Amino acid sequence: MNIHEYQGKAILKSYGVRIQEGIVADTPEEAVEAAKKLKEDFNSDWVVVKAQIHAGGRGKGGGVKLAKNLDEVKQRASDIIGMQLITPQTGVEGKKVNKVLVAQDVYYPGESATKEFYMSVLLDRAKGRNIVMYSTEGGMDIEEVAEHTPHLIFKEEIDPKVGLRPFQASKIAFNLGLSGAAYKEMTKFVAALYKAYEGTDSSMFEINPVLKTSDDKILAVDAKVNLDDNGLFRHPDYAALRDTTEEDPTEVEASESNLNYVKLDGNVGCMVNGAGLAMATMDIIKLAGGEPANFLDVGGTANAQTVKAAFNIILKDPNVKAILINIFGGIVRCDRVAQGVIDAYQEIGNIPVPIIVRLQGTNAEEAKKLIDESGLKVYSAILLREAADRVKEVLAK
């Protein structure tokens, strides 16, 4: 689950990570009040107005602006709130900005220069270990750094049995070229960041940039946080941070029906029970000359209501030219699923695209008979090859 920058920073602060302070605002008037509060609490004359959406590259799209006085704060907030912000991560459709973060200006002058770094904590699935990935090239897209100057990206593996060790935090600070007070501050920052990552059951914490201020403080100027959905039952307060306006409406509807759904760009809708079988089904569709329009796992106890909800969600996609239902009857009997398909079809009414139903497992033969004798525009199959041939056949029409 993605959360906003201001939410991620609040979590970081609760774990002792120094952050760029800020106040979220829903209107230009609230943004002005936030700027006044920052002036009062942190003596911040200038502020940064930052669009809050679940995407990076906001500055490139005009979603991050410096304001030097209250009039500029109001103007910047008016320009950003309500805009359709397009960044390299949103696609051409962009995302509507509903709120901004008014943050203190931390790039103040001093005797020594400020310096930006990149840092993230995430899971290396191949090795089964968490890693701290960091670079001296902060403020840039890490993909560009990896492509053009890969030697400037460092990785520190963390043994899950012992966690981050002090010498590893020191090594990170050393590789970033720090010394003196900044060196000590960075070791504390890394330790607190890793503690936050583990304590929140996150799948990623990305801070870009991590800033060394002119007086050698180390702080998080941005925060991109992805919380592991599987760990949210332990963190109901974090689960409440979900912003459904930032998500695909169809995916939100699917989650409310306990369906695992991800929209794709193809022309064949998929309705499957089990993630592994869903991946195999998508491969079958591609082998048949089609492209999967979605990933949809209805779970192990599919019934008429589940199938109906899945139908409704798939049919919202105008690109869908056929639907492939691929169910393995282990926990649930195939004939019950087949009856659920028939009942859902009849309840929805006229479904404008052909449906291929492949049922295998308990009572598969009985299920095929039910489908064949239903009189509906449904094609039955038992083998995967049969299902693939049916997909190819209906797409060719």
TrEMBL record:
GO biological process assignments: succinyl-CoA metabolic process; tricarboxylic acid cycle
Pathway listed: Carbohydrate metabolism; tricarboxylic acid cycle; succinate from succinyl-CoA (ligase route): step 1/1
Annotated binding of Mg(2+), by residue: N208, D222
Coiled-coil ranges per UniProt: none
Entry's cofactor comment: Binds 1 Mg(2+) ion per subunit.
Name the record gives this protein: Succinate--CoA ligase [ADP-forming] subunit beta
Domain of life from the UniProt record: Bacteria
EC number: 6.2.1.5
Chain sites annotated for binding substrate: N273, G330, I331, V332
GO cellular component: cytosol; succinate-CoA ligase complex
Span of domain ATP-citrate synthase/succinyl-CoA ligase C-terminal: 271-386
